[in-house]
Amino acid sequence: MSDLFSINKTSFNGVAALQIRRRECTALVSLLGGQVMSFQPTGERPVLWHNPDLVWAPGEPLRQGIPVCWPWFGDLRKNPPAVQASIAGLIGGQATQAHGIARSANWVLQSADEHDEFTEICLVLESAPDGIALSARYRFGTQLSCELITENTGGTAFTLSMALHSYFPVSDIDAVNIDGLDSCHYVDALSNWSQHQQAGSVAFSEETDRLYQDTPPELTLVDRGWRRRIRLNAPGSRSTVVWNPWIDKSQRLSQFGPESYRSMVCIETARVLDDVFTVAPGEQSSLQLTITSTSSDDS
Ligand SMILES: O=P(O)(O)OC[C@H]1O[C@H](O)[C@H](O)[C@@H](O)[C@@H]1O
């Protein structure tokens, strides 16, 4: 392997991980949850949020980077009946935890390859339920690309929800907006799942937990404090969850500092509500996300 690239096994908080280094970036991938934990283009700020209060305990997900919510998003009981029925068939009565099973399960490294423009890591969810498989392909270069592939290895079609639950760092929650959601309808999870319509860009002044529908393929997190834009490109997703726990919920969350809500926001590339997806026997479905960070001065 050349000096310009390296992929090393490491661990943090007792969790097995892969450290990726190349000319264009550094990154960390956790084998617990199969999630990207950090991604930093060379000479730039981190693109994913670093959680200073992250302390992992067995069975707990990692609240940092890009947790994988699969094969359902959020509270299963809030999912469409087709998702609930499919999960009952695949997993049965143990389907109680929020955001599914993948984010607190072990994943296995399937391949790691160096290319001229990126390093590619492929992981597979260990011990997936019978009839279903999940793999992740991550590419690290000047951008971060994520692809989650759900495969139906059984004999019955299923319908699922999912999300790439990305945590982004911000200079201050008062100094950011999300562009691209103007006039999208959303469900407010904090107001009895009532329907609303977005006017203008999204700003934050209170706890926010919204499921946006019919969202465009590209959204932008605009950070005026750091003069930075983070672009999320997700052509296969028509739904996006926007979350910030704000003051009270920050105090109740595990692995979360009371002031951390000021330094992060989640923009979750999703397949939820009427955007859930069905996979026939022998077929696959893929969710892709490419994240690009640029200075506001040159975008
Ligand atoms: O605390 P977690 O299970 O990691 O979930 C964190 C958050 O994820 C999503 O954004 C949901 O819409 C929120 O309702 C939830 O609070």
TrEMBL record:
Q: State the reactions this protein catalyses.
A: alpha-D-glucose 6-phosphate = beta-D-glucose 6-phosphate
List, alphabetically, the Pfam families matched: Aldose_epim
Which EC numbers does the record give?
5.1.3.15
Stored InterPro entries:
Aldose_1/G6P_1-epimerase, G6P_1-epimerase, Gal_mutarotase_sf_dom, GH-type_carb-bd
User: Per its UniProt entry, what is the enzyme's top EC class, as one word?
Assistant: isomerase
Question: Which Gene3D superfamilies is this protein grouped with?
Answer: 2.70.98.10
Q: Which family does it belong to?
A: Belongs to the glucose-6-phosphate 1-epimerase family.
SUPFAM superfamilies the record matches: Galactose mutarotase-like
Protein name per UniProt: Putative glucose-6-phosphate 1-epimerase
Keywords from UniProt, A to Z, are: Isomerase
